[in-house]
Amino acid sequence: MAMTDTLRNTGPAAAAAPKRSRTTLWLLAPGVIWMVLFLALPIAMMIYISFWTQTTFTIKSDLTTANWISFFTSTTYLDALWTTVRIWITVLLTTLIVGYPTALFVGLLVKNKTLQTVLLVLCVIPFWTSFLIRVLAWRPTLGTDGAINFILLNLGIIAQPIQALLFSELSVVIGMTQIYCVFMVGPIAFMLGRIDPNVIEAAQDLGAGFWRIFRTIILPLSMPGVVVGAIFVSVMVLGEFATSAALSGRKVNMLGNIIVTQVGSLKWAFAAVVGAVLTVLMGMVVAGLLKVVDLRKEL
Amino acid sequence: MQATFAKPVLAVYLGLFLLFLYGPFVVLAIISFQTGPEGGPQFPIIEWSTYWYRHLLGLTPPSRVAPLPISEALVRSLTLAFMTMVVSTVLGTAAAQAFRKRFKGSGTIFYLIVLGMMVPGVLVGLGVALLANFIGIQRHWFSTAFVLHVVYTFPFAFLVMLAIFNRFDQSVEEASWSLGVSPAKTFRKVTFPMIFPGVLSAMLFAFTLSYDEFSRTLFASGRDLTLPLAIYGTFSVEIHPNVFAFGVLTTLFSFALLAVYAILMSLSVRRARRAALQEEI
Fold it and tell me: Are residues B138 and B162 in the same domain?
């Protein structure tokens, strides 16, 4: 009797609180369970399997560090690790070089909102073509009988087609830059668009030149955009294998390519080790980038 | 400022950027009209023809170039994209609805969901393949690949819906509740029409991302290929312009999808405006 009294006294608000949190639980549960089962568990499984024993055709659940030791002693694996890091740094720089000035123009110098939207939409349209087709399109562009060599030959700029354009590390970097540069342009343009024009005007009135304004106002304020773009590009490039497979003629092997090869030959435990190394590498890169700029404070 | 100097320089830079972005597409479109079956993906164009388009549709006599195995793959990809779209939109809307109220652990759950779109496909693909082997189930495009597609697209749907709910006027819902309308009916009659544009965007995201998804599907699907896997199969062999003709067609298909989205969107906007007008009367 006393209990029903207190319930009645505290009114509907108190009764609604547990009910509301139960609703929240029911709304969240399917999504969270899905992510735990099909995202967290597989990654954990991969790390677990990397300690299994690999025989010629099967894997056994006897725990061992042999796979890890063979990763760090094999030149093939270490070469792939180095290639991955090298391509990642190169593509990060090229996307920044290609993307930053573009974002500067679109985000800051174009004052007309309609034109700005049109330009941003132009950047996104390529995503409406299949990723693999976009990669493959570089083959007839860069090849010996490709568009660039054809144009250069006909203009008389070169006498012989440039062989190094396709099936080299250069073509992989060109392809990845084209595919991923938009992920750099977007966040930077977004941050630049938020800069108060009055700040720049004030600096102008005080006699600051373009470089001075760029160095002291525009660059620092756009840094969060650069970091977000860098995180997108890093994560995608580090996990790449299709572009390097299609444009290097199997000459450039990244960690992703090694995983594909190992799975193809049923070396699941080896593939798992490479996957685990890739996960660690990616975690370090993202954590490092987040150290540069405190995103939560800036955004 | 010397923006008078910087602006034209950057405008030229933007032009070069767009050339870089679109150049390969132009090449792709040109090569797709190469004559066949003897013409390859090379310049110059020997003779303009629609051979490779007819080849793609199986309208040419058999030649040394094997047709792309796309018809069944297309059906699978569309089915998979549709399943993914429905499930991830429902999950995304439900999760975003939950995030409208503050609760403990929301930060962790937010990152768990967003992780789904950040983790590279090759890693989760490998993980799910290992998991499937471990518990001894077969991998199929409609089971293991499907759950991974949702892992990938659900975060996009979630973020879109979160943005929509952020700008949402809650008092309308509260008015409906206080008039004694049940929560389920309120959602159907009040909330849903208001968030419909967001739902549509989430669906578009999920469908196109899943339709084009490749690296997750590679390990997680079994023998039956989806469309991107069929294209990946051409990587190792000599490529022919039929792949490029296919690229042109899929791009057109994507634009058609975008047009449908635009039409539905403008219809919903117009309906909302008409409803607002009626209220005024």
Answer: yes
Of B114, B126, B107, the closest CA to residue B153 belongs to B114
> Is B98 domain-assigned?
yes
Q: Which residues of B touch A102 (CB under 8 A)?
A: 10, 13-14, 17
Residues B20 and B79 in one domain: no
> Do B88 and B21 fall within a single domain?
no
Chain CA centroid to CA A76, Å: 25
Mean pLDDT of chain A: 87
CATH 2.60.40.10 for domain A74-127+179-293: no
Residue of A nearest to B147 (CA): A38
> Is residue B85 located within the same domain as residue B28?
no
Owning domain of residue B217: 71-233
Query: B247, A41: Cβ pair inside 8 Å?
Result: no
- Same domain? For B131 and B187 the reply is yes
Nearest to B246 by CA among B46, B58, B23, B3: B58
> Which CATH number fits the domain that encloses residue B172?
1.10.3720.10
Name the least confident of A93-97, A158-162, A182-186.
Answer: A158-162
Residue among B30, B122, B129 minimizing CB distance to A256: B122
Render pLDDT for A55-77 as a digit per residue (tens, 0 to 9): 877 888 889 899 999 999 999 99
* Partner-chain contact B27 A21, CB within 8 Å: no
Cis peptide before B37 (omega within 30 of 0): yes
- B131 to chain A, closest Cα gap in Å: 6
- In A, minimum Cα distance to B132 occurs at A42
Q: Quick one: B201 and B151 in the same domain? A: yes
Same domain, B30 and B95: no
The verdict on residue B112 lying in a domain is: yes
**Residue B159 and residue B93 share a domain:** yes
What ipTM goes with this model? 0.86
Q: What is the pLDDT of residues B212-267, one digit of tens each?
A: 898 999 999 888 889 889 888 877 777 888 888 888 988 888 888 888 888 888 88
Is it true that the peptide bond before A30 is cis, omega within 30 degrees of 0?
no
Q: What is the pLDDT of residue A107?
A: 87
Contact between B208 and A27 using a beta-carbon 8 Å cutoff: no
Q: Taking Cα atoms as reference points, which of B276, B92, B134 lies closest to residue A35?
A: B92
Q: CA-to-CA distance for B70 and B73, rounded, in angstroms?
A: 5
Spatial CB neighbours of B130, under 8 Å, sequence gap ≥ 6: A42, A45, A46, A49, A268, A272
Does the pLDDT at position A8 exceed 50? no
Q: Is residue B144 part of a domain?
A: yes
| Coarse DSSP helix, strand, coil percentages of chain A, rounded to the nearest 5 percent | 80, 0, 20
> Looking at the 3D structure of chain B, how many domains does it have?
2
Cross-chain CB nearest to B44 (options A134, A150, A256): A150
